[in-house]
Specification:
By secondary structure, the protein is of the alpha/beta class. The protein folds into two domains: 229 residues, P-loop containing nucleotide triphosphate hydrolases (Rossmann fold, 3-Layer(aba) Sandwich); 47 residues. Helix 7 crosses helix 8 and helix 7 crosses helix 11. It is globular, with a radius of gyration of 22 Å. It comes from Actibacterium lipolyticum. This is Stf0 sulfotransferase.
Length: 280
């Protein structure tokens, strides 16, 4: 049984997502939506925009490992499927819509727990400026400030290699999402963060039409939390510096990492050679 007192008194920003203030009366899920994203792509902003329509349930990152552990504690179960059912029971909207958002790293757990992934409508959120996204990702990973009103716990500092690693991670995960969609025969609605910022209502209309959700009569969410565009000082300068230093830095990074990989391969070959000799 869940500990309701823990959920009724959120003490910080992370706790707030588990608050019973965001629960709905028990309703069977008849419409399913998943927002597919990469870090710092604007999916958090979109989730709250959709939530405030009152027609999309509350699409949060339920399968994030830390979040899922807390839901497991609240549910009182150590069975993953039972925990997922518990989440659906709390966060399926009055109109029968259950929605969640996830990064590609959450997909294995989703496929393990969801008996019919094809019943979901897939929304894919990306960002036009991948370098700005990588800068935001690098900064957030340093400061641990992942949303607009979350305080920074450490100072951010410009690090070309860290930004490059985050850029690579974003592009790899984008490619993995596309591979999953193609291999599964899924045609997602493609959304861009910059367009969402310019006209969020048009995005909401497009998403509701795509998912077959009527937003005209949905009561708006009584509990509102509006994340703001997270504009930290230095971001634009970091993007400019990253591009200005790219030609010089990239050669050194690629060469260095190629040498490291060759060294690893040699060590691996030596291990297997030794193992082969031992077995004779």
């Amino acid at each position: 049984m869940s500990n309701r007192s823990d959920r009724d008194r959120p003490t910080n920003l992370w706790d707030r997502q588990f608050s019973s203030d965001f629960d709905f009366p028990p309703t069977d899920a008849t419409t399913h939506v998943v927002i597919c994203s990469t870090p710092r792509s604007g999916s958090h902003f979109l989730s709250h925009q959709l939530h405030e329509t009152g027609a999309f349930g509350y699409p949060l990152e339920y399968l994030n490992p830390a979040n899922f552990r807390e839901w497991a504690r609240l549910s009182g179960s150590d069975d993953d499927r039972a925990v997922f059912d518990f989440i659906k029971g709390k966060r399926t909207g009055r109109n029968g819509v259950f929605a969640l958002k996830m990064h590609y790293s959450h997909l294995p757990l989703f496929l393990k727990l969801e008996p019919d992934p094809q019943r979901y409508s897939f929304l894919h959120v990306s960002r036009q400026s991948k370098i700005d996204q990588a800068v935001s990702f690098a900064r957030a990973s340093q400061t641990k400030s992942w949303i607009s009103d979350m305080p920074e716990v450490a100072e951010a500092h410009y690090d070309w290699e860290l930004i490059f690693d985050k850029l690579t991670s974003i592009l790899v995960d984008e490619a993995k999402w596309q591979a999953y969609f193609l291999a599964s025969g899924i045609s997602p609605l493609m959304l861009e963060y910059e367009t969402i910022l310019q006209n969020s209502q048009a995005t909401i209309n497009a998403a509701s039409s795509f998912c077959g959700i009527d937003i005209s009569n949905a009561p708006p969410s009584a509990v509102k939390f509006k994340p703001q565009k997270q504009a930290r000082s230095g971001g634009a300068d970091w993007s400019k510096s990253f591009l200005a230093e790219g030609t010089e830095k990239i050669a050194g990074i690629v060469t260095s990492r190629a040498k490291q990989q060759v060294s690893k391969n040699k060590n691996r070959s030596g291990f297997w050679a030794a193992l082969s000799g031992f077995s004779k």
